[in-house]
Amino acid sequence: MAVSDKGEQVNADVRPPVGIDELLEHVRAGYERIEPQQAYEAARAGDALLVDIRYAALRDRDGLIPGAVVVERNELEWRLDPQGSHRLPEATRHDLRVVVICNEGYASSLAVRSLRELGLHRATDLAGGFQAWREAGLPVR
């Protein structure tokens, strides 16, 4: 515990509240996001695992990225932790390059933060999400 300017005890680990825009800016400052064409090329070269975290209704409505692994957001950490007992077969090492894809590129940024805290230091997300992928004319099924 720390002491405030007013002499009150405060938890030094508790940060003042921030808005979502400020939080996203802070999170994204810690890594380089990837553009759709770069993600496509990295996946084709075997240098990246594309992970689609969109919920089922969006996948049903808009389609899927061929080759992307679908992992619902609420299971992401369990499926990608190389030390976890519930990990995907692809999640074997901490240097795995993971590209997280949500619908528009917001939830994926927050997911990357969590993956990086698990030690997946090459985790990134798709700028603009699935919608940017589709707008770039990249494959969708």
Automatic annotation (TrEMBL):
SMART domains named among the record's database cross-references: RHOD (SM00450)
Domain of life: Bacteria
Annotated Rhodanese domain residues: 44-141
SUPFAM superfamilies given in the database record: Rhodanese/Cell cycle control phosphatase (SSF52821)
Gene3D superfamilies: Rhodanese-like domain
One family name in Pfam for this protein: Rhodanese
Name of the protein in question: Rhodanese domain-containing protein
